[in-house]
Design goal:
Radius of gyration: 18 Å
Number of helices: 5
InterPro entries: ACOT8-like_C (IPR049450), Acyl-CoA_hotdog (IPR042171), HotDog_dom_sf (IPR029069), Sec_Metab_Biosynth-Assoc (IPR052389), TesB_ACOT8-like_N (IPR049449)
Shape: globular
Structural class: mainly beta
Order of helices and strands: HEEHEEEEEEHHEHEEEE
Oligomer: single chain
Pfam families: 4HBT_3, 4HBT_3C
Organism: Alicyclobacillus sendaiensis PA2
Protein name: Thioesterase family protein
Length: 272
């Protein structure tokens, strides 16, 4: 009889609950440059709210603020449902290590009802996943091993002049999609400043948001399919830049949109 193996993503976002706070462990396998991969931190914060005994409805929005790099060590999360209305429920979350705050977040849940529906955004016309080679980073960071990405355009290694990226992406090994995994996938894009400058510079995400536009059934129906990610920047200025993005199913359903603000250390050419 075969033994079930827990996916690395589920191990990295696993939490226990003591009746007051959630407990977890930052995993070295999902580490980034100076802290854990932001996507897995966001997924962990969302999982705390999802697991709260008073939670109602399904995720609508998640905003995560990275106050300090978390260490490869245990952490605790306080998840407080601060307001429950007829249609929405609002959580405030705080992740702490050694008594100090490293991450804060808000999560909004809601009851979805039938309503007017229209998608204003347009899914780009791109090659099928099978027709695009897997991207392999020259010096991959630990977290990258857990994602299968096919870069269609917009990297630090092509001749695209704007800061727009198209990529097919999924967990690796494949894992059925849920809200936590979708939140993490929204953070797998190469930093916009790398794409624009065609070189790496020191960066760090300050705040990161995901809006879940698809209903849970549509999200779960994706299974292990590769999803199309679109990311672009609207501006780079005074040490920061933004990223706005979309995640699409292969059949054209807009699953989520995402934004983030990122610190960069990119001096004007010729200065230090």
């Amino acid at each position: 009889m075969s033994q079930l193996v827990t996916h690395a993503f589920d191990e990295a976002t696993a939490l226990s609950y003591d009746g007051r706070r959630f407990h977890g462990q930052v995993k070295a396998e999902y580490y980034n440059m100076v802290g854990p991969f932001g996507g897995v931190t966001a997924a962990t914060m969302l999982r705390a709210a999802l697991s709260h005994p008073e939670r109602l409805g399904h995720p609508l929005a998640l905003t995560v603020n990275f106050a300090a790099p978390a260490k490869v060590a245990p952490f605790v999360i306080e998840a407080i449902p601060v307001r429950t209305n007829r249609s929405t429920q609002h959580f405030m979350l705080t992740m702490m290590q050694d008594g100090e705050v490293v991450t804060t977040a808000t999560a909004v849940f809601g009851m979805r009802r039938e309503s007017f529906a229209h998608t204003e955004a347009v899914m780009p016309d791109v090659p099928r996943p099978a027709d695009v080679a897997r991207f392999v980073a020259p010096a991959p960071l630990p977290w990258m091993q857990w994602y299968h990405v096919r870069l269609i355009r917009g990297s630090a290694f092509d001749d695209v002049q704007d800061a727009t990226t198209y990529q097919w992406m999924r967990d690796d090994p494949p894992r059925p999609l849920d809200h936590a995994a979708l939140a993490a996938l929204c953070d797998t894009f190469v930093p916009r400043v790398y794409v624009k400058l065609k070189r790496p510079v020191p960066i760090g995400t300050v705040t990161f948001t995901v809006y879940f536009l698809a209903d849970p059934e549509t999200i779960f129906r994706q299974g292990t399919n590769e999803l199309l990610g679109v990311a672009r920047a609207t501006g780079f200025s005074h040490g920061y830049f933004d990223q706005v993005g979309e995640v699409w199913s292969q059949d054209g359903e807009l699953l989520a949109t995402t934004t983030q603000l990122v610190y960069m250390k990119a001096p004007i050419s010729g200065s230090s």
